[in-house]
Predict the 3D structure of the following.
Amino acid sequence: MNIKIKTETFLKHILIFGSLVLTVAAARAADPSAVSGPMDAAGNFSGKVLETMTTDGYTYVQVDTGNQKAWAATTHFVVKKGDNVTVFGGMPMNNFHSKSLNRDFDLVYFTGKISNNSDSTGAPAAPVLPPGHPALPGEAAPVLPPNHPALAAPAAPVVKVDLTGIKKATSGKTVEEIYAAKAKLAGKSVAVRGKVVKYNSMVMGKNWLHIRDGSGSAMEGNNDLTVTTATAAKVGDTVLVTGKVSTDKDFGAGYKYSVILDDAKVTVE
């Protein structure tokens, strides 16, 4: 699958996704050329690092397997030229453009784990996935859909944030009200005010926020709203969010949101 990527993380593509629900095995069966390369049946390969580069989000390594040279990328880890590494569960991205490096790659294998077999400190940090994203290949099943690059790893637990005193947005909705009326609100713009309880920056080229306003309940699953935006924020910030409601958005591999505000306008108050 040759997909021209315009942004560092989507990428990620498609994803954004078009519901890719094929497993890697199914992709190989349907189109072996889409995943041809140095990896074994599990998507793993090992070799010597010929070159390495680091961006704000990723470490890139060019690996010489002895039979082939291949680029791979994952979240930051300690590595240097000459180290021996193992790439786990590599997902191929053809014709990938790295905006941060201003470089085009014919092929890069994105993964959730590259182990440095030469340096005990080289183990990569656990990847930081968007909320609700399944584990990456090399960490645990299920595997990601074909052409899905590595994201960072399971998000950190929600930090306890004081949700008292949050005022409902003028002509807006509470988090609970958005969930309750999601069918009617689908495709429409809404405003909601809340506090950021989880934040992941530049995943799939966007910042991912979880906001809460004290409405709803964890038991009902209607107290926490996921938002993607270009605006930076931090846990504990009070934010006014305006965005279009998307429902039952399925990115494949269990990566599904019943409600999400995608590409929203966020104002930190």
Notes: The first strand starts at residue 45 and ends at 54.
